[in-house]
Structures are given as C-alpha cells and as structure tokens.
Design goal:
This protein has twelve helices and nine strands. It has helices at residues 11-18, 23-32, 50-67, 76-88, 96-105, 122-133, 147-160, 187-203, 208-216, 248-255, 282-289, 310-327; strands spanning 3-7, 36-39, 42-46, 136-140, 166-171, 220-224, 236-240, 263-268, 296-300. Helix 2 packs parallel to helix 4 (76-88), helix 3 (50-67) runs antiparallel to helix 4 (76-88) and helix 10 (248-255) packs across helix 11 (282-289). The protein is of the alpha/beta class and 328 residues long. The longest helix has 18 residues, at 50-67. It is globular. Strand 7 (236-240), helix 10 (248-255) and strand 8 form a beta-alpha-beta unit. It starts with a strand and ends with a helix.
C-alpha cells in the first residue's frame, strides 16, 4: 500500500490541524475511513485510492487556508466539522475531484484580505457562482446560511479588483414597528444598530483599518433604504440586506436604482418578517415575479447551508418541521 503525504512546514498550524489529543485527526479519519498519521511535519495516509488522497488534500488545504491567516476566525473543531459537513453534502453526481474543483472555483480571494473565503456547502457555492454570473441575485434563507457574508465578501473582491468603483450597502430601518425618526441621535447614530452586521462581515475578511478608510473615502457607503429614492447607482455593487422587511413598493424602488455597470445582491429570511401581518414582504413578491427574467437569479438556501453553531441548524430544522406539520 502506498502512502500519500502532505508537508506542513508551520509546526503551530500542524498542531492545530491535529487538534487536542489528535481530536481533529480522528474526525478526518472517521470521515475518510482510513488512519491518518502525523510524523514530524508531515501528515499522511496509507491508501492506493486517488479519490481518498484528493479528499485528504482538499480537507487539509481548506483547513490551512482558513486558519493560517486568522487565528481568531473560529474554533478549530468547528472549522473541521464544517469542512467535513460540506464534503458529506456532496451531490451523488459529483465525483470527488470535480467536487473539490467546484468549491475551489467558488472561493473568494479578496486583495489585502485576512483570509480566503470558501463556501462551505453546495448551496453556498452555487450562490457564489450566481453572484459572479448574474447582474441581480436574490437570495433567501435562514440565519447562518452565509447570505450576507458571501455577498459582502464578493462585493469587496470586486471593488478591490477594480471591477466596480464602490459598494452601497442598505437595509430597511423600520423593524418591529419602530421608525428611524423616533430613534435618538444623528443619522449615523440612528442607523448604527442596523448596519452592525454588515460591518461584522467586512471586518471578518479585511483589516478594520482598511474598512474604515474605504468607508471614509466613500468607496463603501451604508445608507438607510429610505434615502435611496431618486438615486441612480452606476459602477457599483448594491446590497440590500434584511430584504424580508421591505414592502413591495420599497423593493421596486430599490431594484430600480440599478445603473450602468452595476450589480444588485438582495438577501433576506422570510421566517423573520417584522412587517404588519397584512403587508406583503417585498422579498417574497420579488422572488415570485422576477424568477424568470434573464439576468436575475433567485437562490433558495436552507437549513443544510447553515454554518453557525450546530445547535442553530437543529433549531432552524425544528421550526421548519413545525411549519410542515401545520400545513398538513
């Protein structure tokens, strides 16, 4: 039996790949069904299967990519679990080498970024593919499915590669019946609670100082949805987050702000609508009427695409199961 070996020159990273008491290696062994050996600065498997070698290489490379540049990104075991979950969710029609190539092609490399961004499920990888190939992408899915994070990462990649000149980020600012006008402080102070998740996504992939400078220079603009009326946004990536809380009229107004050489990304979660019961969500309406328009892609993510704490996925699945039971 022949050995397949990966050299990890950084001993600290090798220790993290192995995990405490080789806990991560045991997870990889359980997935591959064969032993994994750590000797010196090498990781190896004894297998004559080229597919096993490719899977082993893919898992270790993904781990090193995600952890080598950001020590605080996530718990190491969580990252390994996420990578293995993505592997186990492969569509049967995908052989391993094509699967790995698909994920690699859908990775997001941001110039000056702190890490390479990988989609962690097939649904997320397909979402990234649509972000690149379509002028307008509408994505709906549960919390933690990567909608906002991947849209923001792709937008940053585009602006820092000079494919567009600016990013415009917006969210509806009327939630649970509270209007922007009644909140204390100036405009920036009023919208800060709403835009915090967008900054969190940017700070996860770029140094905070870079994000600050891009915001101060106007390359990144964050504005309430109400302030979008009357504008035409050219040469930009325009992202509408929390779109489930738009009305039909607001959604139409937003989508028609799109100018020349621009892209529009819309994200939302229809299980978290804060509108009055008699008001139709602009996200739901747009998904229905725009689905067959050339250049527009509608992507539905699910609980399978959730990459937060595993408990979040189980909670979302429980709510989905309850909804199905109520329908029968």
């Amino acid at each position: 039996m022949s050995a397949y070996t990966i050299i990890v020159p950084d001993s600290t990273l090798l220790q993290r790949v192995c995990g405490t008491n080789d806990s991560n290696l045991k997870l990889i062994e359980s997935y591959l069904g064969i032993p994994v050996f750590a000797r010196g600065n090498e990781l190896s498997i004894d297998s004559e299967s080229g597919e096993k070698a490719q899977e082993f290489r893919f898992i270790v490379d993904r781990f090193l990519d995600e952890m080598s540049v950001d020590n605080t990104f996530s718990n190491d075991a969580d990252v390994i679990h996420s990578i293995l979950n993505a592997q186990m969710q492969r569509e049967p029609s995908f052989i391993s080498s094509r699967d790995h190539e698909f994920f690699e092609q859908c990775s997001i490399v941001i110039p000056g970024g702190t890490r390479k961004v990988y989609p962690r499920t097939h649904g997320q990888a397909d979402f990234v593919r649509l972000l690149r190939s379509c002028d307008m992408v509408i994505a709906e899915g549960p919390a933690g499915s990567g909608k906002t994070f991947l849209a923001v990462a792709e937008a940053l990649r585009m602006v820092l590669n000079h494919e567009v000149s600016s990013i415009v980020l917006t969210r509806p600012v009327v939630e649970a019946g509270e209007s922007l006008g009644y909140l204390p402080g100036d405009l920036q102070e009023k919208i800060n609670p709403y835009i915090r998740p967008l900054y969190d996504s940017m700070n996860a992939v770029l140094p905070r100082e870079t994000v600050r400078k891009m915001t101060e220079s106007g390359i990144i603009e964050i504005a309430p949805l109400a302030y979008m009326r009357g504008r035409t946004l050219n040469d930009s990536v325009i992202i509408l987050d929390e779109a489930q809380n738009t009305t039909k009229e607001q959604m139409k107004m937003f989508l028609t702000r799109m100018g020349e050489r621009s892209k529009v990304f819309v994200t939302g979660d229809l299980t978290q609508v804060d509108l009055s019961r008699h008001v139709t969500s602009g996200l739901s309406h747009a998904m229905n009427i725009l689905v067959d328009i050339p250049g527009v892609a509608v992507k539905q993510l699910s609980a399978h695409d959730v990459v937060r704490n595993g408990l979040v996925k189980r909670i979302i699945q429980a709510y989905e199961n309850e909804k199905k039971e109520e329908q029968f």
